[in-house]
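User: Could you check the structure of this?
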Amino acid sequence: MDTLTKYLAVAAGGAVGAMLRYYMTLSGLGRTAQPYPTATFIINITGSFIIGFFLTLVTERIPINPHVRLAVAVGFVGAYTTFSTFEYETARLVEGKDFLYAFLYVVLSFAVGFGAVWAGIILARQVEGVPITSRLAEEYWRGPVTEASSERVATAISQETSIESVSVDNTKEQRKRT
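Assistant: Sure, the predicted structure tokens are below.
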């Protein structure tokens, strides 16, 4: 029964995401900057932001029902974003010899989409009033954060600071002598 509810959650989220995607495609965005696929570009960027924001909040800060998580992250965003459409439209641009548009579409979709994911992550952490680099991120990049590792970092920082202040003092003394 639990498996069925998971599938229904994904289906419900997917229905909403697919309808919103269809609406966005039919909106004026679909006719903006032709032949550049503006609607798909906007959809992919906002979808990247939504998944970055939502998954950061529910993974790091807000406990949420797993069915809601599936409905939003897998269903809604999966149906709303359009990577397969992105690939097809890129192929059509290349086929039509619109190489500049194809290049811009691929590069901008990747770069701005990646930036949107990070913007979502950062905003989610700011909404929760936590540091932009979370404990989970620290553990991922540096290993588990322990008191001992925190003390080592603090000691290293204080040693660097004292070395800098000693060298600054020495430089001042040398200037006075000359």
